[in-house]
Amino acid sequence: MNEQQVPKEVSSRLNGWFITFWIFTICHYVIGIGGVFASTMVAANSTSPETTKIFGIISALCIAFIGFIQPDQKYRQFVIAWRILDEKVNLYKHGIITINELIEGMAIAEKTLDQIEREAGKQTAPVGNKSDPKKET
Fold it and tell me: Could you give the C-alpha distances from 109 to 25, 32, 63, 114, in angstroms and in order?
């Protein structure tokens, strides 16, 4: 059985999300482990003030990156969207669904990604945000 050719815009989106979630995963672990290693070096190195200072700066930058960018959350966003679209792509390739269902699956993945981003934004909103009607009462 011949596989159906996936439209370029769908495969580009699928590949982009795949690359993005792997980049965020790698950043999370490499920078996280780097921050832990650097902070351990600060604690273990009391003989060289310059080395301690350098490792302290590296540690602070790594931990700030992890806290501010939150690559673990970004990874989850993109892997969820990728999984939704990947399933539809595989079904389409084997003739189980139509092109319209594939495009609909891509739209669902996009909406899911958007919804996750909006929910993450709500979690980081400042306390007493005036745009939240529940807080005004």
Answer: 20, 29, 31, 9
